[in-house]
């Protein structure tokens, strides 16, 4: 949460995370300040778990799970693998191999993020030769959109019930 999110100490938004413009799917929002605070603590402690579905070019390795652990840096809105970057871990937990009508190979991946860096999935998959379909910024072939979808967000929601009630 940035200081610009508050006016006179009052929270001005309920969204807990930013999602890339080219990504579809779930966004976590809070209905109360307590809910926002509890979720924000988990978000900052990296306890929030995000699962994505994406379609990448070519057939990705099918022996799951497998991880990409390469440090990422960013510059001018683009992420890239760099020894000077921040730690980033992307785990591929499920792979399905697909083909289009012309026989061109694709892979449908279920991906879990262990860190949340800018364009992490896009940069990591591109770095191993499997850019996302539609992701021209990272070497993917043109498509109607970038094939990246935030499918699941998981966090612990403590009971707000008062003891004895």
TrEMBL record:
Could you confirm whether the keyword Endoplasmic reticulum appears in this record?
Answer: no
Question: Known SUPFAM superfamilies for this protein?
Answer: Pseudouridine synthase
The organism's superkingdom is given as Eukaryota
List, alphabetically, the InterPro entries matched.
PsdUridine_synth_cat_dom_sf (IPR020103), PsdUridine_synth_RsuA/RluA (IPR006145), RluA_PseudoU_synthase (IPR050188)
Q: Where is the Pseudouridine synthase RsuA/RluA-like domain?
A: 20-127
Q: Which GO terms describe its molecular function?
A: pseudouridine synthase activity; RNA binding
- Say yes or no: keyword Isomerase present: yes
What keywords are annotated for this sequence in UniProt? Isomerase
**What family is this?**
Belongs to the pseudouridine synthase RluA family.
Q: What is this protein called?
A: Uncharacterized RNA pseudouridine synthase YhcT (RNA pseudouridylate synthase) (RNA-uridine isomerase)
Originating species: Cladocopium goreaui
